[in-house]
Amino acid sequence: MANSKARQDSEIEQGRPLPDVNDALLAPADPDQGFDVDDAGRAGAGDTLVIACGALARELIAVIRLNGWRHLAVTCLPAILHNRPERITEAVCRKIRANRERYRRIVCLYGDCGTGGELDRMLAEEGVERIDGAHCYAFYAGIERFDQMMEEEIGTFFLTDYLVRFFDRLVMEGLGLDRYPELLQDYFGHYRRVVWLAQSEDAGLEAQARAAAAKLGLPLEIRQTGLAGLHGFLTRQSPSLSRALRAGEGRRTIARTVAASVRSQLR
Asked: What's the pTM?
């Protein structure tokens, strides 16, 4: 059992295929739809609510399921909101206020996502923690690694697994390029490469990523990220760690609490 859990934990972070959690909840969320999962699909309210972008839903549920985190409930907003970022803050705020009395704690799995700091200002007023990073590219790749990629080439267009799956819907149709292909140069003329931040190893997705880059007339680079960013953020939401944070314990004690929480999942 310990070896099995250790293998799953490694696969979460490295992005290997996870056939044992292959169910309807792990199907990629439609960009126009949101959904709610209380206690990872089981009856009963969770301790902590994660408000997330629908583009992260599949990976988020996979991490929760594999770790058996029954204290986490999930509500996802439609990924299409990224095409209208001025609506994200209000939508997240409505979710917070609608669920305030149901959960002990609420956290936010969004980047700034083009809200110009409005999301962070609202979250500070509501007392809700957000994952570090300006966008999902940063917390998938890691902030330092993402900054290095931008230093290498500022003209980088990033893809995640979700964006690869819905490239035509969100990019080609979302930007009107299916109807007005002459706008391609206006939108992407300053880009020099496409980088796919791959959460999983998938030959089919790789073919789709290459096709997406070809539509933009750009070379594709692949950087494996796995799900370490999501895993680390969600690990910190364990009840034992929350008690340590509220008690004001030092960083070393908190680090030990995180390590103990992870070890308990491996037994």
From this structure: 0.75
